[in-house]
Description:
- The structure is a single chain.
- By secondary structure, this protein is of the alpha/beta class.
- It is built from eight helices and five strands; from the N terminus they run ααβααβαβαβααβ.
- The longest helix is centred in the middle third of the chain and has 16 residues.
Amino acid sequence: GRNGQSVSDAAQALGIELLHAELQLADLGATFAAIERLRPDALYGASAPEVFGRYKQILEFARKARLPDTYWYSDMVMAGGLMAYSVGISDLGRRAAGYVDKILKGAKPGDLPLEQPTKFELVINLKTAKALGIKIPPSILLRADRVVE
């Protein structure tokens, strides 16, 4: 999807090689074994609902493998992931409610303009960073919307 392409584009611009491991819901052990074979420096959990649906197992794997991890969902950082950078979910909810209101008042969905997200959130878990031996620069901490300590 478009999100995957934007991640690929950003990685290429930064000189980062992306390694892909398909999330196998029926056998997470196979997914984790594939990741271990790839020997990555970090883990990026894509924005797929399946990732959020299995967050406990994914976080447990990331901690055991001592992989710095980043996600789309701030809830995963609150539960022990290292960081998340994503669209502000509460902002999306408010915008969606506005669309629902317009539709209920008779607007045709096809006539409503498409909107791009304007609010993004950076969430960092300092406890996880410390456990991984990662020092988060103060300049990054100042930019964070939330810091878990």
